[in-house]
Amino acid sequence: MITFSNDHFFDFEKQARPIKSIALIHKNMKPGGVEMLVVRMVKWLSARGYNVTLFLFSSGGPLLRQLETVKGVTIIVDEDTTDPSVNMWLVTKMLRTRFEDKFDLVYSFGPKSFLLSYLLPASKRLSGVYHPESYKQERTEKVIKTLKLIDPKFHTRLLFMNPSIQKMTEKAIGEPLNNSIFPMPLDFCSNSETQGNFESRRIVSIGRLAHFRTYNYYMIDIMEELIQLDPKFTYHIYGSGQDEDDLREKIANSPARDHIVMHGDFATIGDKKRALQDTFCFVGMGVPLIEAAGCGIPGITAKINDPFGLTEGFLHQLPPYESGDSFSADSELFSVQTQIEKLLSSETEYRKMSKRDRIKAREFESDHVMENFIKEAEIKDFSFRLH
């Protein structure tokens, strides 16, 4: 058994100081939205001279290849093919750092990695919340109880991807949260490049095929109506997941089946860029929606667990930092099909929606987001805001 004094083990240095050494903690680097966030953060920090150490507490993953040649980055991982919940070799490595210099900042990406972050010596400790149910009690009850035990103010060190996730986390842990919003830092096409095309009839959705992402299903029904308006319409689905077989079956039984293509996962980043070229509009949520809008493609926002094809509208109509994966009960809702037909009404209307969505996407521009993240992380007061 390991025994320790809280005064020694969890000491916090509140003196404001420039941040140079940063530890990031995550489970693995298998394909996913948070994993791509880790890649973006590591590359951005490295390019600006920060010393980055990435701890992966379960195993590696294919996205590690994107970090192999990045300078100034140390990756600590045990390529365990059994994919354990927590790799004990890694825990031992983290414990040994207790006798080394403190990291200026330790940042984690979920409840379990947040708990493990307390094994590392840190001047400041923060953790991001990227899913509305990350701190839902039945999912992480033991982790939350342990966090409260070792750090009663752990909730003041949380950052949230958007305000909706903040509200749901507040409800889950039963504490008022006035913490910061740290949106996903993203890179877009150059201002001179526009991938949206009014003349095109190509509609795209990108995302993991999961039960709560219902837009892939109702878009099949909508396509049956759209091809009556213009037989050139096609719908392109990128991604894989547990609902793939059910989705293929629904497509096979649809009169619009010859107009719908399931492409699977992207092999390279270049494949993703090519998938957005010459696109009429995007239907979906989260990072792919923002990336499409940032390249001049009108983005129609989807809702989770919605079988009826309803939307709050285009990306620019959402509250700050929201990206369609959650919605307010007071929001006015529209038909997704109606929004598509709205884009069809005139090229002037199309260009207006494209421009407004592109401006909205700039909230997530990587330099803007990451510079604010570093600036605010250097402030000694834990109650700070990024917007």
Automatic annotation (TrEMBL):
Enumerate the spans annotated as Glycosyl transferase family domain: 200-304
Superkingdom of source: Bacteria
Q: Which InterPro entries match?
A: Glyco_trans_1, Glyco_trans_4-like_N
Q: Where is the Glycosyltransferase subfamily 4-like N-terminal domain?
A: 31-131
UniProt name for this protein: Glycosyltransferase involved in cell wall biosynthesis
Q: Which species is listed as the source?
A: Planomicrobium stackebrandtii
